[in-house]
Amino acid sequence: MEINLTTSYVGFLSLAVFFIAYAVVMVEEFSHLRKSKPVILSAAIIWGIIAFYFSGDKSYGKEIEHALEYNILEFAELFLFLLVAMTYINALEERKVFDVVRYQLTSRGFNFRQLFIFTGIITFFLSPIADNLTTALVMCSVLIACGKGNGKFISLGCINIVIAANAGGAYSPFGDITTLMVWQAGIVEFFTFFNIFIPSVINYIIPAAIMYFFIPKESPEVSSEKVFMKRGGRMIIFLGLFTIFSAVNFHNILHLPPMLGMMFGLGLLGLYSFYLKITYNSEREDNKFDFFRKISNAEWDTLLFFFGVILSVGGLGFIGYLSLVSEILYDGLGPTIANSIVGILSAIVDNIPVMFAVITMRPEMSTDQWLLVTLTTGVGGSLLSIGSAAGVALMGQARGYYTFFGHLKWTPVIFIGYIASIYVHVLMSGLPW
């Protein structure tokens, strides 16, 4: 049953609600209103408007219910995946793992510029394995630990991590949710994704090279007191890596959502936390390891923000806007230009529903064009801090240092890398403009 309400009051009112909510999100650093609050309201209002419009026609009730359930399921998978990742990061932080990494880096005399390079390169090559979101969260914790007190370094370092995580995640089926969607749909083969490795490198290197010269020529303070990891820290590192391995293989081998592998890892951390609790020695340790406190300390503002965004955009998709945009782009402009614009749209709207709309439309495109849209939706999110899961997560984790407008200042530089990566892919694959 095809529904098109794009020219009705339902569509216009829903768009107005969505854009007002996003405008409030963008001024969070000035208003100090948490970004989750306006988008939660937006989601409820948009679906409320849709339900009100069809309230007199019960035949559409099931359609609305199924569409809403689909969006809730999409959020639930992302929510549980994120919750586990954040819990592990909190556990590693409490066991002083990141403090030890900071000590090891700073004690070797690395300055802020060298740390900027190291964190970026590690992020780029880790995100294809561990996924861009988890990698960004882990590397942000290391960055904050290394750059304590230096706001400019942390701000630029976070932008660098977001770009590196998104670029690194674009050339791997496990690196980003959008690449996973394309692979799951059977559109692109597993190893074919690696054809966009070089464009991904270009996308990361250009803005990183420019930002490098704006990093302070200073070195972080080196503490004379050696830092030691708390008991159980190494085991939690192993469990964290095993959790990522489980998430990948639950999907790859068992064809189950990666979230289930993450929850398996959370269960293992829960069991190990019980072992740490019953073997606690008050004379050797400061405090007991509290498993549920690590869960409660997750970045709930970020998690609820994703709820609001996914359901708001899902509502706009139900109204017909995503399909409308896809039709206008691919029929009117051709696939190369359309795929380039889709990447920019993904920075504004969010890459998951944009890619879902493209896959649903299934325009007639070659494999190289599908690789292009995978690249653009993956790296296009770097243009804005709210354009990718990695950026949104870091806004919560590095609150006060990494902000929407702080990122926006560097959008022109990031855009140069974006255009260059598209040009390189078009050149390598021989695609027409």
Ends distance: 35 Å
Strand proportion, as a percent range, falls in under 5%
Total number of domains: 1
Largest sheet: none
Structural class: mainly alpha
Helical residue percent band: over 70%
What does this structure look like?
The chain has 21 helices and no strands. With 433 residues, the chain is mostly helical. It has one domain.
Q: Which SSEs are present, and which pair or pack?
A:
Blueprint: H1 9-26, H2 28-31, H3 36-53, H4 61-94, H5 97-106, H6 112-130, H7 132-146, H8 151-170, H9 177-184, H10 197-212, H11 233-252, H12 258-278, H13 291-296, H14 300-319, H15 321-332, H16 335-349, H17 351-361, H18 367-380, H19 389-397, H20 404-408, H21 411-429
Top keywords for this entry?
21 helices, globular, mainly alpha, single chain, 433 residues
Explain briefly what this protein structure is.
The protein has 21 helices and no strands. The protein has 433 residues and is an all-alpha fold. The protein has one domain.
